[in-house]
Amino acid sequence: MEKILVLDFGGQYDQLIARRVREQHVYAEVKPYNAITLEEIKSTGYRGIIFTGGPNSVYDEKSPHYDPAILDAGIPILGICYGDQLMAYMAGGEIRSAENASEYGKVELTVRKSPLFRGLSEKSVCWMSHTDYVCRLPEGFTGIASTASCPYAAMANDARRLYGVQFHPEVTHTACGKEILHNFLFEVCACSGDWNMEDFIASSIEKYRRELAGKKVLCALSGGVDSSVAAVLMHKAIGDNLTCVFVDHGLLRLHEGDMVEKIFRKQFKMNLIRVNAEDRFLSKLAGVTRPERKRKIIGKEFIRVFEDESKKLGKMDILVQGTIYPDVIESGKGDASVIKSHHNVGGLPKVIDFEGIVEPLRDLFKDEVRATGLKLGIPADLVYRQPFPGPGLAVRIIGSITKEKADTLREADAIFREEIDRAGLNTGIAQYFAVLTNTKSVGVMGDARTYGYTVALRAVATDDFMTADWARIPYEVLERASSRITNEVKQINRVTYDITSKPPATVEWE
Ligand code: XMP
To answer: Fewer C-beta neighbours within 10 Å, C or N terminus of the chain?
Structure first.
């Protein structure tokens, strides 16, 4: 299989680069620069290498470096941002810090003729984010692009198949970024582009069949897309050695538990244990109002429940989780600041009673997970289900959680989702749900005064859930939802619609 190595020097876009390569049907894997030796790189037979960006300056003592002999390994290399400066430095060029002239944001780029820029117009917009820049090219390199303040926005040594770009071709703000990566993969590395999601499935199945042979594996199934895809993938690899445990923590959506049970037990014929643990979770959550605390409690309780179940089953060796790449970043990769501790990652207690955790989807983005799910034969209804957080309605009930509040929210949420689906809006809106605020206010119904909860409706359009825009739902649909909720859900007498984007808000209310 043709493979590209993304050698990570601490940038934030390592997985995004890998994904952009996979989008072009070439397999890419990310390795931290200090986790793979030059010998290993050579023996793996990579078609090409991409050096990622990173926050350092090449002359800093602590900055990440690599054996310069990598430039002579005969493997094409593309250096991006820090990776570009590092390549120049290793090859004998000079880097300078433009202390007062750092370039950040969209910048006009002028390119010259090069295999890397085949098919590009002379001028386009690229995304820059740097202070340091290459001020003197190494011997044998030529400048192939420039911006107003960066004389060597890109450099090339065609004979050695070494290329560097100061800007970021992997982000969508670089208008020709996709073409540049395409040129690197196909013009420079001579890839054929025959990789697809089926190859990922086949190699994962093969890998886990080998690595988990004879192991008893437990899968934490939530019924969401991610854990469902992880479970089915694992089931294909190890069959009945996999037992799925589905914890009903009492914070699921209306009828969700029954649906999950039906799909996995009946359709996929998996070993499925449904644990009804509503009392256990709600008693642990009683009186807790801080969202991060709720998350930690639920994450911890989940693991305890799995441990208890695995004890009943006899010793289980491995825990499978449906963590996907955006969960990893949002929970703080490396030094990145923690936005919220994701249920699948940060919520886990330190000591758990398994030999190990396996996360087969850890490197994939959501759309890649969906494509995998479809290829695995999971019904489209399930694959395209909107995301639902692991801690469930706990993150949608502001303030303390009670069964009454959860039941109230479940009813309102089901009505809102039904109205969106009925209006045919479900495909254009990535996520839509109701939130139970902890505001109560006076209302009037018939001739009587009421004192009920305010529910907030939330609907967002987004591709990647990193940023999101609030959905412009027609007033009539909002009106129907509001009228039905206040009529059909006794405890609610007021409905609001959230018109905040992410950022500054997040998708969920917590
Ligand atoms: P936020 O609120 O961070 O949500 O803008 C982004 C997306 O992530 C989902 N989400 C979660 N998914 N475990 C998950 O698997 C979690 O703990 C979790 N918290 C939020 C959220 O529903 C939205 O789609």
So the answer is: N
